[in-house]
Design brief:
mainly alpha; 4 helices; about 100 residues; two-stranded antiparallel ribbon; Transposase_21
């Protein structure tokens, strides 16, 4: 089954069906998982991840400190989320009864 999934080319909603992870709403970022900095747009009420992934840049990167090209007056000081080990992922899956 792993070989079949490795060679499957799918769009984002199909990825959600294959993995079981939600692909809409606030928690749809596959890298941030539950530690996302997503926000809702003021008028559209849509979830946006614009500017949320600057934390993956190096600490001294100029884009990380830029206040004009991204969200106004925002400097990103948060560190990227830690990668979970196989045991931690298994514990999360066991928590949901899978």
């Amino acid at each position: 089954m792993k070989a079949v999934l490795m060679w499957t080319i799918s769009d984002f909603p199909a990825y959600g069906m294959l993995s079981g992870w939600t692909t809409h709403g606030r928690l749809s970022c596959l890298y941030c998982l539950g530690r996302t900095y997503a926000f809702q747009l003021k008028y559209g009420r849509r979830t946006s991840w614009f500017d949320c992934h600057r934390r993956f840049l190096p600490i001294r990167d100029a884009y990380r400190r830029n206040k004009t090209l991204f969200r106004p007056n925002t400097i990103f000081r948060a560190l990227p989320p830690v990668y979970l080990t196989g045991e931690q992922l298994e514990a999360q899956i066991d928590h949901y009864g899978a």
